[in-house]
Amino acid sequence: MSVLAVAGTAAPKAAPPVEDERRRSRVPYLLLLPGIAWLAVFFVVPMIALGSQSLQEGSIEDGYTLTWNWQTYTEALSQYWTQFLRAFWYAALATLFALLISYPLAYTIAFKAGRWRNVWLVLVIAPFFTSFLIRTIAWKTILADNGVVAEVMRGLGLLNWTDDRLLSTGPAVVAGLTYNFLPFMTLPIYAALERMDRRVVEAAHDLYASPFTAFRKVTVPLSMPGVVAGTLLTFIPAAGDYINQRLLGSSQNNVIGSVIDTQFIRVGDYPTAAALSFVLMISIVALVVVYVRRAGTEELV
Amino acid sequence: MASTRTVDSGAGGHLRLAGVTKRFGEFVAVDTLDLTVPQGSFFALLGPSGCGKTTTLRMVAGLERPSSGSIHLGEDDITLRRPHQRPVNTVFQSYALFPHLDIGENIAFGLRRRGVARQEVKAKVADMLRLVQLEGMERRRPGQLSGGQQQRVALARAIVNRPQVLLLDEPLGALDLKLRRQMQLELKRIQTEVGLTFVHVTHDQEEAMTMADTIAVMNDGRIEQVGTPGELYDSPATTFVANFLGQSNLIRGTVTRADGDQVLLDVYGVAVAMPAARSRASAADAYVGVRPEKIRLVRAEGAVAADGENELTGVVTDVSFVGVSTQYLVRTPWGQELTVFAQNIGVDDRVRTGDDVRLRWVAAHTFALDATVPIDAGADVDDEAEAPVDARS
Amino acid sequence: MLGRAVRWAREHVVVFAAAAAVAYMFLPIVVVAVLSFNQPSSRFNYTWSEFTWDNWANPCAVPAVCESVFTSIQIAALATIVSTVLGTLIALALVRYRFRGRSSTNVLIFMPMATPEVVMGASLLALFVNMSLPLGFTTILVAHIMFCISFVVVTVKARIATLDPAIEQAAMDLYATPAQTFARVTLPLIMPGIVAAAMLAFALSFDDFIITNFAAGTGQTVTFPMYVWGAAQRGLPPQVNVIGTLMFLVALVVVLAPRFLRRRGSLVGAVPVAR
């Protein structure tokens, strides 16, 4: 087996540089085209239209014209700022309660479930196969004034500050919101905990940490990406939700989502409704950006 | 253009890379590579990680496009051909078995794509399973096999297509030591039996030397040297090869006389002689090299050096008993520590730390290298198994 | 003895909390199921009066209920098919290719998931009105496809990302053209992700209310959630509970079936691992 020399072997002249790269790179655009086009037409365009609508003046009968009327924003905000705050407040409370309820659940499934893990997961997701409206209406039954829950709470004196009612109150709305978003909070936290390397916790124990300290200083920080994802998946829809408020609350607890719906469908004041929508969207985005940056996780999608 | 649908690699030819370069943005992974792999040989591409060997392999497979240069298989120019159009198959480092197909279907995959008749497919798959000693496992899934078994399936899946060149991308990396040794011999046996051209990429120099007929040592996208394991080991062409393959003692020297059969060098005042044919020094400054196992350690008061032997003096600074051999570190008068491996053949020499010794070796075992490259090139490169981390690197 | 019991309780307090949470989650379902057997004494099926099989015997006694379910199923099926195809294509592009505008595409995919439904619904209604489109089945379908795409992309992307790219390279190395590689290797391996995405899209579409309400406008089309919402004001027939319970059972079967099938299949084909 002779060794042929490295350099100096008679070699054919070098082939021209590759042309194919450019041709190949068209494929992703073709793949993207239909879906992105759909989103562009039915999401981006309407959003822009909505933005433009918020700066228009007129009425349904006479038609609308774009007058860059920023007044609409200030008027709408001054009129409805309580509903905004209430929506965010309810959403924040619901997120907090959902977190408190979901974390032990996620922890159990990740660390203590063993072979039964899949059963637990199905149990977590299963209730939410039923229509969410039907479930929320069921809460009307559960929290009814003459129901068990209300009786007990009245007896304990917990309902003194809500006119002895449970239904048609703020707490009922928060209860409904919390309930509806539990799986959205549980599953991301579970996913983050499940991915964690258990040996890190063992190392903490080896380094003199009590179980609670190990939990606090090791497990919780490592589960943060899941917590962040879960809180976002809960807060964002909850802030705009009005189903819970309409079914379980009363006109005293109006939230901004409800106002927007009314303005669009019943009152027909499109510019105001559009302005409120945009403020809602932008404030949510702003809160999310601030929150994500503080929580320090990079990828959300 | 020759058909790529041939079932057997009858006609073939050498694999030739000419001026092949691969750039990733600013970074040059492979730099003007010229290489010829003789047909039917077991060829190894050896080098540390990041040296461009895997990139070169992928360009031969068609999974990367060269930025410039050409690749020929015999008369065929395959530079621009898509992977599925080349009579080349790859055994991947992660095996890349199809998890949704059973072993039989995995092996048959290439045959089916090329339209081989069903009966023939069945026969060939059975042949392959016998070759890699996995008979009866056609219905199993990859997930049910051990690492070693998966590796053999990956091999069978590639070989069954009788490619003109079989590429192996560090296929033994994930196996434990004993299994790796076993598979090294297996691969060599299979290659001899089927007679295909194997191009094996590895960073393990022992593996390359065990298995390959010819080795190309790569570093930083370039080829340092091509040769048989013996040639590379005994006559390294660069400091990188000298340090990467086994260990070398490299000492600075100056050429004093270079006419005739012998070259004389001055090494810190000592005269060293060597055959002219073994010297690759192009200028007056050179590195004088000798392998540790070629050196005999003799007590200072011992007999005089014979004719044809070179000799240096030093003080022993470390003695390590390693079972097969004893490794000595000897400090020379100019402060360099040289390594000596002495085979433990039962001669009771009792050389201890602090002793004055003479280092003797046959002049013909000397080699000399160009001094333009750093003297420690290739010395502490990522040999995952043993190399201690050097404070300088 | 008491000490041991206390310690056991403390170790398992987390599990108790978790079990309580699950019980809490099932509470409304139980209420819904129980009330489906109710003969309501008023227009609203909120409180228990007496037991009856009638509702289950005649789930379509109120025709509007079954019609709306059928409409919802039709829309969900179509929306699932279209959004799954479009979303899968996008996911493939995002994971397997590098191209300019990749991060903007990611943002565009993310935005519908982060936008309140009220806003999306309202803006779509405005668009449809401006384009003078008749509001109804088609507009609802269009809206559903729109918001399902993002979820499909995220789900399928996650699955594709777990695929070793070397496997597709191995297929090409073994003479499979890009089309054959996709059909015989890529697609089968990402199919679980596609199926999961389709199921998610179906569920999202079937259960959606807010956007649907806007997109339906004042048209004739009524989906099941729309019917329930209206019924909540007018009068809730117990058949709604029947449908609700049925939905739960069907979905439960769909989720659990693959697990049971796989277990049976693996018993048939199981071979001990040689060593």
CA-to-CA gap between the ends of chain A? 56 Å
Oligomer: heterotrimer
Q: How many domains, in number, for the residues of chain A?
A: 1
Q: What's the count of strands of chain B?
A: 20
Order of helices and strands of chain A: HHEEHHHHHHHHHHH
Walk across the major sheet of chain B and give the strand order.
6-7-8-3-9-10
Enumerate the spans of chain A where pLDDT stays under 50 for 5 or more consecutive residues.
1-23
Cα-based radius of gyration of chain B, to the nearest Å? 25 Å
Query: Whole-Å distance between the termini of chain B?
Result: 50 Å
> How many alpha or pi helices of chain A?
13
The fourth-level CATH homologous superfamily of chain A is: MetI-like
Number of strands of chain A: 2
Judged by helices, strands and strand pairing, the structural class of chain A is mainly alpha
CATH class of chain A: Mainly Alpha
General form of chain A:
globular
Helix content of chain B: 10-25%
Shape of chain B: elongated
The helicity of chain A comes to over 70%
The CATH topology assignment of chain A is MetI-like fold
Structure overview:
The complex is a heterotrimer of chains A (301), B (393) and C (275). With 301 residues, chain A is mainly α. Chain A is 70% helix and 3% strand. Chain A has one domain: MetI-like (MetI-like fold, Orthogonal Bundle). Chain A has a two-stranded antiparallel sheet. In chain A, helix 3 (71-112) packs antiparallel against helix 10, helix 10 (211-240) packs antiparallel against helix 13 and helix 12 (256-267) runs antiparallel to helix 13. The longest helix of chain A is centred in the first third of the chain and has 42 residues, at 71-112. The radius of gyration of chain A is 27 Å and the shape is globular. The relative contact order of chain A is 0.12. Chain B has 393 residues and is α+β, with helices and mostly antiparallel strands. Helices cover 21% and strands 33% of the residues of chain B. Chain B is built from eight helices and 20 strands. Mean pLDDT of chain B is 87; it is low at 1-10 and 383-393. Chain C has two domains: 2-55, no CATH class; 62-238, Orthogonal Bundle (MetI-like fold). In chain C, helix 2 (13-35) crosses helix 12 (239-269). Classes of the chains: A mainly alpha (301), B alpha+beta (393), C mainly alpha (275).
